[in-house]
Amino acid sequence: MDLSFILNELGEEREMYANATVPPIFQTGNFGFRTVAQMRHALKNESSVPFYSRGFNPTLDLLNQKMAALEGAEAALSFASGTAALAAAIMLHVKAGDHIVCVKKPYSWTNKLLTLYLPRFGVTTTMVDGIDPENFRAAIQPNTKVVYLETPNSFTFEQQDIAAVAAIAKAHGAALIVDNSYATPLFQQPILLGADMTIHSATKYLGGHSDALGGVVCGSRADMEKMFASEYMTIGGVMAPFNAWLILRGLRTLSLRMERVAQSGQLVAEFLAGHPKVEHVYYPFLPTDPQYELAKKQMKNGAGQFSAVFRATDQAAMEKFCDSMKRFVLGASWGGYESLMFPACTLADSANYSNAPFPFNLIRFYIGLEEPQALIEDLAQALAGLEQALEPAKTGGTRLVR
Fold this sequence. Notes:
- The protein is of the alpha/beta class.
- About 35% of the residues lie in helices and about 15% in strands.
- The two termini are about 35 Å apart.
């Protein structure tokens, strides 16, 4: 199936809803029946027939079909958030006494799930530096059931060699799960490289308009059916029909938006990489990045995210720099139309992130759909007022997390 067909036609049976070009929202919690036999049939086939919207809903089903096709997977399930999706994907594979190997410095809520929540139920995790695939082999134990990747990592954007790690996981009978939120299926397809599952924060690029939360898990039909019967239905963190409709709307322009943010992100990253008040830029598609060749091997393009370390005197100088920006919004998420900054210095008094290894002079940028030259000019005027440290900031090569 070609990309245009998946995004614009797959699963859209227009004759079933008055030939509307835009599929309707099945904004209902319940479905009614005329006979006991009809109701019994729906209940027996709850994963594929409307019975109760916590199970099957036609709007979610359309999104699931498209996401599975985009990832080269057999099936998909949509969740209320990316965190709900990743939790379900991991918990599907583990029980008390099992072990997980995870790339170091994953998304903060992935880290909490693995290091604080699952240990309450006897599941342990080993974190490894994912740059060398052999680190995963060395960490695997006889009870390892999951190998978890986030490539690229979302604050300093290190990559893991998906195909190499997939071979290691398969040899040891462990499931390989990959967070593919950064690249989207348009720029990277981990399942085609050997992963068992991919997960997405659909809140980001897939939705694309900063107006809907969601998460998606893609994998084999057998795994999705097993997940539907357990984590999906039992915990109930399912996506609302209206959010599914908003994310479907976002998919219509996904190809155009990803092309734009990749082009603009490259330009802005290159500008910062060449500025004397910038110590380092973390972006896989800069030729100076140590994993540039791997980026070209397993991703079709970069995206709109990168981080930069600035030569600033202290935290106050960084805050002044951030406050002087005019075109960037200070905000957490990413993937929408608006350009964002997430300064690490924001986390100084955060209960959730107070122990994160974030140097005060690092900022994660997301480049949206604005004209890149306008963003570069905004950065230039703010850099002109940045109080520069006499010596390069001491980051010690610290790699950070989302």
